[in-house]
Design brief:
By secondary structure, the protein is an alpha+beta fold. The chain is 42% helix and 22% strand.
């Protein structure tokens, strides 16, 4: 994925024109991070936001006990730290490359200057932020009203983009369990049950999806 493709595929930039892409690529800075390298830490000054072109970045918080809780994994074409556009202050979480990654960095002031001169781009980005907020609301609903198998099924479907027959978990199963707000034992039990039901096949961190419709039905199930 090149710079223009990454920007164009972002929900935040839905509806961008070729001229918008020219302006956005002009102000973006291309940055490279090695596997394990920190992009920013909680409490750092928020100076802009990022779009991965290659690789993956995990966004996470640390509990007072030192336990890591992954908020989400940023893939190519998905923005992170978007709040830095309008918020004055600090990054509220950590961001770390979980594999060698290339990111586009959009400095806050440069974006604000561009939006001041381009009202349509500003309107499009407001719509993009609204879509991101809806995704966050969906995540909250899932944690509140759906059980672990349902949340796991939705995670696998999203990872596969509803088309890839095989996916590789971007994080360890322990980290995935924390991300789904469950225990490692419950996650393993859910994976075994889904495998027994012939929905998936588990090969270490590689998951082969055997039944997309079955996973979809499971993902839409609410707690009894």
């Amino acid at each position: 994925m090149d710079e223009r493709e990454a920007i164009k595929s972002c929900p935040l930039f839905a509806g961008v024109t070729d001229r918008d892409l020219d302006d956005l690529t002009r102000i973006a800075r291309r940055l490279e991070f090695a596997k394990g390298q920190m992009v920013f830490s909680e409490g750092d000054k928020a100076t802009g936001f990022y779009v991965p072109i290659e690789g993956k970045v995990k966004i996470y918080k640390m509990s007072p006990e030192g336990r890591e809780r992954i908020m989400r994994i940023a893939h190519p074409g998905r923005t992170f730290a978007e709040a830095a556009i309008f918020d004055i202050g600090i990054f509220p979480a950590y961001a770390q490359a979980i594999e060698s990654s290339v990111l586009l960095f959009f400095p806050k002031q440069a974006i604000l200057n561009l939006l001041h001169c381009n009202a349509q781009l500003a309107i499009n980005m407001i719509g993009g932020i609204s879509r991101i907020l809806r995704e966050l609301m969906d995540d909250m609903e899932s944690l509140t009203f759906k059980d672990v198998p349902s949340r796991l099924a939705r995670y696998l479907l999203d990872l596969s983009e509803m088309k890839q027959r095989e996916v590789r978990l971007p994080v360890s199963k322990a980290q995935l369990a924390a991300n789904l707000n469950t225990t490692g034992e419950t996650l393993s039990r859910s994976l075994r049950k889904m495998s027994d039901d012939n929905l998936i096949e588990v090969r270490g961190r590689v998951i082969a999806i055997r039944d997309f419709q079955g996973l979809l039905d499971l993902s839409e199930r609410f707690k009894e």
